[in-house]
Amino acid sequence: MPGEQKVCPACHVAHHKGCWLEQGGCTTAGCGQGPGEAPALEEPPATIPIQVSETPPKIESPSPAGSTTEEPRRKLGMLVSVAPGHPNFEHGMNLAAAAMRADVEVYLYCLDDAVLGINDPRLQSMRGAGLRLFGCEFARRQRRMPPDELAIYGGLTMLSDLAAATDRFVSFN
User: Fold this and answer.
1) What CATH number belongs to 73-173?
2) Which of 28, 90, 111, 167 is surrounded by the fewest CB atoms within 10 Å?
3) What does pTM read for this prediction?
4) What is the pLDDT of residues 91-115, one digit of tens each?
């Protein structure tokens, strides 16, 4: 049935059942149920073992400046909706490259005419270097583009999830 939905057992986001099956799992950024990830339990276990320590945990003070404590990487979400060759498409690609050089995780969603640029060698090179590249499935189909594995394709729910999961979100229209 076209309206059937699949709710991710890990992040509880609803997906079209066909999209879930086509993508091989959840397409929500950061969710462990994505393509190639280990499947989650459909139902939580009856009991969860808890370790009880007789000594209280040690609370460490913040590390001084210059220490080697690893901080979580910043996340930049980007939406590009203009065709390759448009100045804003180029600005978006330049920002993504600069952010990646600054060790920022970049999540790029191509909407509307921007899906035509998913196969751009520069984008694919950045993808190979860690860019998280997403494309609008509806836009791909409207432009009669064949299915490919150059990006993860999904709907606007995926875009919403990207915007919510990143520290900053910018748009190039």
Assistant:
1) 3.40.1260.10
2) 167
3) 0.61
4) 999 999 999 999 999 999 999 999 9
